[in-house]
From TrEMBL:
Gene3D superfamilies attached to this UniProt entry: Globins
A UniProt-annotated Pfam family: Bac_globin
Domain of life: Bacteria
Organism (species): Dyella agri
Transmembrane segments: none
Protein name in UniProt: Group III truncated hemoglobin
InterPro entries: Globin-like_sf (IPR009050), Globin/Proto (IPR012292), Hemoglobin_trunc (IPR001486)
Keywords linked to the UniProt accession: Heme, Iron, Metal-binding, Transport
Length: 136
């Protein structure tokens, strides 16, 4: 039986983004982009509650936000997912951790595709332009 609720998700988001802020690889990207960490954590708690609980409390456009960060590379997505998997395993029971990891994997794949980044780190992007980006 799932114990996933808003409180558990808020705890997950809090611990996760504390790790992100301190991480040598992705910390500098996040710390440069996020100007109010409590507000950002609240926003991401609403995002994950909407994803996992159907709360419909998040209003935003993750693709636009990520596209607005030109320094993001596939390696950063990989590190983000490593930390996410680690933290979900620490904070949640096995079933809820697997569920949240699956959501993150799928969302990450979609964001990478939308940004034209490779799925795997050992391949190069094909160089195929994304339809509608940079054109009038």
């Amino acid at each position: 039986m799932s114990t996933l609720d808003e409180t558990r998700i808020a705890t997950l988001v809090e611990r996760f983004y504390d790790k992100v802020r301190a991480d040598a690889s992705i910390g500098p990207i996040f710390n440069a982009a996020v100007h109010d960490w409590p507000e950002h954590k609240d926003l991401l708690t609403r995002f994950w509650c909407s994803v996992a609980l159907g709360a419909q409390s998040y209003r935003g456009n993750p693709m636009a936000v990520h596209r607005g960060q030109p320094s993001i590379r596939a390696v950063h997505f990989a590190r983000w997912l490593e930390l996410w998997h680690e933290t979900t395993n620490e904070v949640l029971d096995e079933d809820d951790a697997a569920r949240m990891q699956d959501y993150a994997d799928r969302i990450g794949r979609s964001l990478r595709m939308g940004m034209g980044l490779p799925e795997r780190l050992d391949v190069r992007p094909l160089g195929i332009p994304i339809v509608g980006v940079g054109r009038c």
